[in-house]
Amino acid sequence: MLLDLYNNNGNAAMNEKLKLIDEQTSPLHHITWVYNADEPQRRALENNICSFHIGNGYFLSAAHNLRTQQGFYRSISEDLYKRELFPKLDGSQTRLMDAHYFYDGYTHKRYLNSIDPVNLQAIANVLKQKRFDTRWVSLAEKKICTPHLMIQFKEKAFYNDPALTGLFNEHKVMYDNDAHRHTFLVEVALVHAFYEADITLYKIVDTPAEIINKIPAIDIDLTFLDELKEDFYCLQASPNGPAGRLLNDAKIEGLLDHFGIFPDDIGGNYIFEGYRYLVKGYFRFGSSGAPYLFYDTIRGKYLANAVQSEASGIQLAIKNDREGNFQYVNAIASPLYIIKDELQKYLAGNL
């Protein structure tokens, strides 16, 4: 009888693991910044980051991608260009922008028409000199581009539901040739960025409730794991390629009262600080925003407890030279505990 109970518990845990990585049941997706979302021929997706659904259209991710600068923009409304950038430019700079951005009188937008790295760097230099804000958070605020959730399937059906598939604007469904997946774009808005904790809260906007309710979610745990815990995992993108998921063992090796400086030339540098886990276990570069989970045997489900934040390198001496020689075998994760009070305020009555 005890053996049967053990086997049943083991099978249940394995089934829950498979749900976490299956495209139909996983809470893990990516958020990407989309230029010209309703213009398929001009659409561009950039600045991908992992995120996970915690219910009712709320997603958690990392925050450090928000205040990095793209350096240039792929399109901009004529009104914004004339109002915020054009008055700052001298004659040669205006000619440079006119040469590499063409104006469309129908959309009233200017579009980048060059992919040459030299030209892009020249544009970036002008924008930096004029302190034009190309941080992703600002590009979203100005509607130059907007963050979207990317939900991908092998078949062109939103969670195998033709009725839900029909609710999508045709411009928000596309085929990803690299991933060989059908991608559904769902717009999200930034609710709050907890920069010190390197955690961000997003919410789906302008989307029917039927679509939101169909997206699998994972419950969160707001405790601080101050001791080593078995059954601790990282749910992240697969090691190779643009699609797939990986659930791998992880181990909390240490606890940090963290301090780190993140550069921001426009808004001013800010500090990463607060409690963190030092985690040992595989993580891929590009896994920022992925959740760390543990299996709750009482509730029979996985709970998200922390967010992948940074790599933590060990320094090596190669031919007696330590400079720049790092091996990344550890990660730094932000426990949801450190934003517990704020997160509960935002989510009160919503989960």
Can you walk me through this structure?
- It contains 8 helices and 18 strands.
- The strands form 3 sheets. Strands 11, 12, 13, 14, 15, 16, 17 and 18 form an 8-stranded mixed β-sheet that branches. Strands 1-2-3-10-9-7 form a 6-stranded antiparallel β-barrel. It has a 3-stranded antiparallel β-sheet with strand order 4-6-5.
- It is of the alpha+beta class.
- The chain has helices at residues 2-21, 78-85, 91-100, 117-129, 136-141, 162-165, 209-214, 340-347; strands at 28-35, 44-55, 58-61, 75-77, 101-104, 109-112, 146-153, 173-176, 181-194, 199-204, 219-220, 232-237, 245-249, 251-262, 270-280, 291-296, 301-315, 326-335.
- The two termini are 37 Å apart.
- Helix 3 packs across helix 4.
- It is globular and about 65 Å long.
- The model is unreliable at 1-6 (pLDDT under 50).
